[in-house]
User: Fold this.
Amino acid sequence: MHTKTMEGLIGARTNMELLNTPFRVFKEARRKGDTAKMEQAMGYMNDFHEDAYEYKEIADEGMKKDVEETRRIAEEQREEAIEKRREEREKLEERIEEKRNPDTVTDTVEISEEGKVLLKGNTELNSADSDVDVTKAEAVKEPVTYTKTGDTVSEEQSPSISVSV
Assistant:
């Protein structure tokens, strides 16, 4: 809470409580018919009343400053959070880039035993039809690994697989 807000609230409350004394004097003077004392009490009441409204204005100014300060702090926190997220994203992208190496990223395809049996069965059926299919079947029997660019990699180089999630 801003100091002006506290000062304003305390001052306004104090002056409103101080109004009770001159008001009580005013009532007593009115009962007795003493107009001079009534006017004097009214003067004090008016002073306390004006002071209370002055303190109210101070409290209003303090509350406006509280709101501005709160908005400023919230904006700073928001900016810090955005910057933190931006840094985390950059670090994550750097880690992903480090893990990616275009020369070592390859994919391999393995054919299961059932697939090999089906392939062999299909090649036997097609071998009677043409000689071209036989060469294709022989080429498929050897496992082939391709790089990102589409080049084949020999079996001597061990392929590595990198998966990022």
